[in-house]
């Protein structure tokens, strides 16, 4: 398993893309190695199925230039029941890939799975740096330099702003890979994601851009106030 510069973690395929696809696109274009971890296969999603969602994730990966994508196959809507296992496995992946930056969902979100992953990743990032936690001589303790939270459904004033204006159409193309989630197709049901969701994402990132003096920006928050021009 190769090392990564950025490891972006979400509950479901499409979470990372919603909040951070633009920043990951920019990083990949700079030659950085990008990994995405989905904790579940989103098997309880109202629309689509696991096979379709994996096909969509693979299409998104090709556009993003992702180095590696992982899926732990943990239970959708059941992450709290396997919390210790999830933390342990994220710790192991962090130590194996040794990313400089870890991205996780913002800790307040309408979807409980997003909040669960936020807490799981926070604990895993901390525990990965503890030598006596799951000691492994082959993959010693390691703590990433930064843990940043990206937005899915919620919005607060970001502490980190990334100008994604130049590649914003590319971000939208990445999100459109997930047609089963964002489009009403024959046999699908209406959800918040099929009711102008991509437009709401664009509105949020135009707002972040306006605040930063650019057209479009992705926003993140971290443990302490700081501003980065890129990831």
How does this model look, in words?
This protein has 231 residues and is of the alpha/beta class. The chain has a single domain, classed as LmbE-like (Rossmann fold). Helices cover 39% and strands 16% of the residues. The protein has seven helices and seven strands, in the order βαβαβαβαββαααβ. It has a seven-stranded mixed sheet, sandwiched between helices. α1 packs across α5 (168-175). The model is unreliable at 224-230 (pLDDT under 50).
Radius of gyration, in angstroms, nearest whole number: 17 Å
Helix/strand-derived category reads alpha/beta
Shape: globular
What would CATH call the architecture?
A: 3-Layer(aba) Sandwich
Instruction: Strand order, main sheet: write it out.
Output: 3-2-1-4-5-7-6
How would you concisely characterize the structure shown here?
The protein has 231 residues and is an alpha/beta fold. It has a single domain, classed as LmbE-like (Rossmann fold).
Keywords:
single chain, GlcNAc_PI_deacetylase-related, globular, alpha/beta, 231 residues, Bacillithiol_biosynth_BshB1, Bacillithiol biosynthesis deacetylase BshB1, LmbE-like_dom_sf, Rossmann fold, disordered C terminus, seven-stranded mixed beta sheet
């Amino acid at each position: 398993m190769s090392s990564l510069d950025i490891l972006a973690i979400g509950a479901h395929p499409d979470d990372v893309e919603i909040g951070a696809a633009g920043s990951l696109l920019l990083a990949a274009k700079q030659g950085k190695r990008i990994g995405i971890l989905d904790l579940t296969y989103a098997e309880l999603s109202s629309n689509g199925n696991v096979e379709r969602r994996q096909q969509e994730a693979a299409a998104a990966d090709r556009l993003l230039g992702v180095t590696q994508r992982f899926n732990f196959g943990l239970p959708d809507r059941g992450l709290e029941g396997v919390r210790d296992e999830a933390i342990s496995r994220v710790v192991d992946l962090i130590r194996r890939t040794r990313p400089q930056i870890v991205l996780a969902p913002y800790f307040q979100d309408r979807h409980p799975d997003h909040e669960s992953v936020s807490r799981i990743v926070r604990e895993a990032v901390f525990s990965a740096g503890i030598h006596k936690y799951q000691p492994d001589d082959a993959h010693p303790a390691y703590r990433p330099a930064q843990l940043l939270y990206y937005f899915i459904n919620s919005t607060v004033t970001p502490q980190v702003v990334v100008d994604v204006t130049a590649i914003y159409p590319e971000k939208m193309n990445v999100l459109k890979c997930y047609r089963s989630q964002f489009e009403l197709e024959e046999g699908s049901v209406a959800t918040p994601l099929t009711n102008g969701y991509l437009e709401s994402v664009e509105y949020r990132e135009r707002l972040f851009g306006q605040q930063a003096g650019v057209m479009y920006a992705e926003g993140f928050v971290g443990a302490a106030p700081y501003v980065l021009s890129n990831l």
